[in-house]
Amino acid sequence: MSGSVLSMARPAPTSNGCGSNAALLAKQLSITSNGGAKNTVTPAIVPPKQPQLAAKVIQQSQIVCFDVDSTVICEEGIDELAEYCGKGTEVARVTKEAMGGAMTFQDALKIRLNIIRPSQQQVVDFIRERPSTLSKNVKRFVAQLKADGKQVYLISGGFDCLIAPVATELGIPLSHVYANKMLFDYQGAYDSFDITQPTSRSGGKAEAVAMIKQQHAADALITMLGDGATDLEAVPPANYFIGFGGNVVRPEVYRRAQYYVTDFEQLMGDQ
Questions:
Q1: What domains can be seen in the chain, in order of their start residue?
Q2: According to the model, what pLDDT value does residue 103 have?
Q3: What counts of helices (H) and strands (E) characterise the chain?
């Protein structure tokens, strides 16, 4: 992890939480039935999966790793940055193609950044003008994890300069952030991104977990939390995965996850 993260204080968001989780779930969840037709599933039909056991998994884990976009925060950082820079529609098209398997994660990242080409000043302005919104109860949950002596990490396919203010707000050291890095030239113009970061490529979150694992006792239990398939695929080397659907529910993740919650409070047990 390079040390050139843009260290900025995170501005206070204009609202508390991500709005109505129920409305987001109703709007965004679509699960394919056995017949192949897609049915919109209301929140009442999409319950958490084994939240009590998931809370026990957290209690037993020494290391807890979080995805960032749509998990720790409500937004998808690169999409928000693209919109801010006036490139939202173009980037959304590439994102859709990438999700359809038309290109590798790294190729999709390269194409999207080459479309946006944000200057260093634009990134600074974006962070100041559009601060990320923390997901409901995540700050309390992270505080509890830390109080219980657990190591907390953020692992993201997003960018460290956008994530650093969030990590600081949560009291997570920047050395515990695994994310991609934008590179700028001496005038602050966008140049490229660091392809040596594990999260810049497919399978990168599993690679990041493996790197974290090497820094701790061999028998330390690691749990990964996130909304996406790349988070689910971090097991192994992570020992457990808990799906999170508080902002958006990915049907494939919901189907495959043994444990699934829609509010971090569900993982806090009786505390």
A1: 51-75+133-267 (3.40.50.1000)
A2: 75
A3: 11, 10
Q: Token digits for 230?
A: 């790349």
Q: How far apart are CA 179 and CA 210, in angstroms?
A: 14
Average pLDDT score over residue span 9-32: 46
Annotated catalytic residue 69? yes
What is the structure's pLDDT at 200?
86
Strand 63-66 versus strand 38-40 pairing type: unpaired
User: In terms of Cα–Cα distance, which of 66, 177, 182 is closest to 126?
Assistant: 182
Long-range CB contacts (< 8 A, 24+ apart) of 188-191? 188/119, 188/120, 188/121, 189/117, 189/119, 189/120, 190/113, 190/116, 190/117, 190/118, 190/119, 190/120
| Burial grade of 147 (CB within 10 A; 0-12, 13-18, 19 or more) | exposed
**Residue 67 annotated in active site:** yes
Residue with tokens 């990242």: 109
> Cα–Cα distance between 99 and 91 in angstroms, integer?
12
Model-level pTM? 0.81
Place of tokens 């239990």: 221
3-state secondary structure of 254: helix
What does the block give as tokens for 91? Answer: 């980037």
Strand partners of residue 32: 38
pLDDT digits (tens, 9 = 90+) for 105-150: 888 888 889 999 999 999 999 999 998 889 999 999 999 999 999 9
Contact 36, 50 (CB under 8 A): no
Position with higher pLDDT, 69 vs 98: 69
